[in-house]
Amino acid sequence: MQTLKQLPPKTARRTGLILFALSCLAVVVAIALPFVSLPVSGTIKAGLITTIVVLGEVAFAASLALLGKEFMGRIKSLVSFPVVRSVLFFPVAGIVVWAVATVLLRYVGQYVLVPGNTPLTISAFAGVALLMVVLMTALYRAAHVRGPERLIAATLFALPGMLLDAGTVLFFSDVFPAMQPDTDSLFAAWLFWGYSVVLMTGIIWPAERNGRS
Q1: What pLDDT is attached to residue 76?
Q2: pTM for this structure?
């Protein structure tokens, strides 16, 4: 760490930002790797994930050492950002929900999304819409988010899952081996619909409740 602090200010800042970005990328890669098929054994994959997590933590610590108290102050200011009472709450909730949903679909998705089964498809789309409305309403209440703040909260919730699901759609057969290969387009449409409902809860609910809050 002492060696890092001896770098010129501009170099230290650039290096710190790069390390911070790499630490964030390491988290995404570590989460996605279990669902990606690699030509290695499970033990080697587990070791690779552990290594990525450790390197990500090291990169994060080094970035804080380089960027200093000013950067830490900006991070803390995000947490108290006046528009959303908890900026970290909704992205973390989005990642947790994405992980749980992805694991569940990996094992039971073939019973939920079946190409050509119209009644089941309608039920799947209606079910995820209802689930997202109930879930987001509960999260808004838990974080005491009201009015126009809900749209920002909904966006923060949806973004991590949308980014991660770009990978699940791209590697559909590897992530969901039990589903029929031609389910990928139905799965993508179902995802878009679910995320659209999440964003709609941030637009519709504030308009209905602004007069009362």
Answers
A1: 60
A2: 0.61
